[in-house]
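FYI - complex with NAP, inputs then prediction.
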Amino acid sequence: MNIALVGATGKIGRQIARTALDRGHSVTAVVRSDANLPPELDGARIVIAALDDHDALTAAVRGHDVLASAYGPASPETASTLSTVATQLIAAARAAGIRRLVVVGGAGSLEIAPGLQLVDAPDFPAAYKSFALAARDALGIYRSAEDLDWTFYAPAAEIGPGEARGHFRTAAKTFLSDAQGHSQIHYPDYAAAFVDEIERPQYVREIATAAY
Ligand SMILES: NC(=O)c1ccc[n+]([C@@H]2O[C@H](COP(=O)([O-])OP(=O)(O)OC[C@H]3O[C@@H](n4cnc5c(N)ncnc54)[C@H](OP(=O)(O)O)[C@@H]3O)[C@@H](O)[C@H]2O)c1
């Protein structure tokens, strides 16, 4: 498949790019600078485009089967850019005639009980709250894009470096944790779940997650 990927230089994005390339897909990494690109992007096509430049972003993604995003704000102060970028990605997808949008989401919007999202739990860590609330706002923007086949794919609560285990669980809407109450996934397994969703859509117009 032809995959356009925003946020391809990030910790999650570079793993998604690597996994997709290793599976034989064509990946266009849409970056704001081509200085210091991570080695995981070897083999990707690199296109420089600012996310707030609608025409440049549309031109960068035109002709791809899927627009994927692992965009992440640099700080809690800029967390609300998750919504800005959601609007920019939706506009570019529409202008480029791409129906399928798969974005890295936030676990805070997953349900820990019917009607109760993780971010609303009393013990939700304060350090992540602004990101989680901003991600929920962005989810609302994707939900309103009824003409697009979007997926808001949240990692487990904890995502980080580690060996690929090659197995994980996925679910729509529901927060996943293991028997010890840990919600974890390593970058390569999350990337595998994300690229699985690109290849075989399972959670269209839904929030979904992958965890051990
Ligand atoms: N448990 C969870 O729910 C959970 C955990 C972790 C992450 N996440 C989600 O995943 C996202 C990505 O995480 P990450 O750890 O991979 O983040 P990261 O390493 O900080 O990567 C962020 C990516 O966004 C890009 N970016 C930032 N500002 C940009 C701008 N103004 N224009 C264009 N690109 C810009 C960065 O590009 P540059 O290289 O050019 O800066 C980079 O590619 C997070 O923000 C969050 O939404 C969720």
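The chain has one domain: 2-211. The domain at 2-211 is CATH 3.40.50.720 (Rossmann fold).
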